Automatic annotation (TrEMBL):
<feature type="domain" description="Glycosyltransferase 2-like">
    <location>
        <begin position="28"/>
        <end position="128"/>
    </location>
</feature>
<dbReference type="InterPro" id="IPR029044">
    <property type="entry name" value="Nucleotide-diphossugar_trans"/>
</dbReference>
<dbReference type="InterPro" id="IPR001173">
    <property type="entry name" value="Glyco_trans_2-like"/>
</dbReference>
<dbReference type="Pfam" id="PF00535">
    <property type="entry name" value="Glycos_transf_2"/>
</dbReference>
<dbReference type="GO" id="GO:0016740">
    <property type="term" value="F:transferase activity"/>
</dbReference>
<protein>
    <submittedName>
        <fullName>Glycosyl transferase family 2</fullName>
    </submittedName>
</protein>
<keyword id="KW-0808">Transferase</keyword>
Length: 261
């Protein structure tokens, strides 16, 4: 069983990112910049396929990496990660221990500040619990994802029409297609936490994107997703807008996305 890290990045001028991220396994790097080229390099005995691409959008980057991926196990990565030394062995071990899991999510620890809190025990994930997952925590059996032709929705993610939610939509589609997701309390990386590239407060754009995200996850469950989010997260946005307005704008996002489907 071999592992491949799928890195999304932008405007890299050289290959130093590989060392900065402490990548010591096979990898695919999609570097969105102002040229189109590809190269394969050997790094500490491992194969790194490097693609420079003039297209834009995080989900387009993820899909390009998926297209070229060959590893048994693939790991989603951003360029602000620093992997622990033995991440490859840790991840592969968990897939051997959980043969029923097609996707496993791991722990990532913030460097500048706390990233998030994690459960101390392993557990299965469903539609609702998978909404808490970030892309940098995700590893999956490539064969299972490709069998179902699951890709990232290119309407979502940094650089796209809707700025968030691409990993949650991806995981929801995996569950819908019968893939099993598990969480394990195993740390695989540290994360530099800087300013968000998309979050500018709980404004109209935020709620439009949320409504669209929930609809992309599941048309039939989207109204329930919208309602539970508006109620559950009310304390976060109540200083900026009302519950009814948040619901109204998310429903607007839902209607907008339905026209794209």
């Amino acid at each position: 069983m071999d592992l491949q890290v799928l890195v999304a990045t932008m405007h890299q001028k050289d290959y130093s990112l590989i060392d900065k991220m402490n990548i010591n396994s096979d990898a695919i790097v999609i570097n969105q910049c102002d040229e189109n080229s590809e190269n394969e390099i050997q790094h500490d005995g491992k194969k790194v396929k490097w693609f420079n691409d003039s297209d834009r959008g995080l989900s387009k980057s993820r899909n390009m990496a998926l297209k070229h991926a060959t590893g048994d196990i693939c790991v989603l990565a951003d360029d602000d990660l620093e992997y622990v030394e033995n991440y490859s062995d840790l991840i592969i071990e968990q897939f051997k221990l959980h043969p029923q899991a097609d996707i496993i999510t791991f722990q990532v620890e913030g460097i500048e500040k706390k990233f998030k809190s994690y459960y101390k025990e392993s557990r299965k994930l469903n539609y609702f619990t998978s909404m808490k997952i970030s892309s940098v925590e995700v590893a999956f059996r490539l064969e299972k994802v490709k069998e179902q032709d699951i890709k990232f929705d290119e309407n979502f993610g940094a650089g796209s029409r809707y700025k968030m939610g691409e990993e949650n939509i991806f995981l929801a589609h995996c569950i819908k297609n019968g893939l099993k997701i598990a969480y394990v309390p195993v740390k695989i990386a540290d994360l530099h936490i800087g300013e968000s590239s998309w979050f500018n407060g709980y404004n109209k754009g935020y709620f439009i994107s949320k409504g669209a995200q929930f609809t992309a996850m599941s048309k039939s469950l989207s109204l329930l997703y919208i309602l539970q989010f508006a109620l559950r997260k009310r304390n976060l946005y109540k200083k900026e807008t009302s519950l009814m307005n948040a619901l109204k704008i998310m429903l607007q996002g839902r209607s907008e996305y339905l026209k794209l489907m």
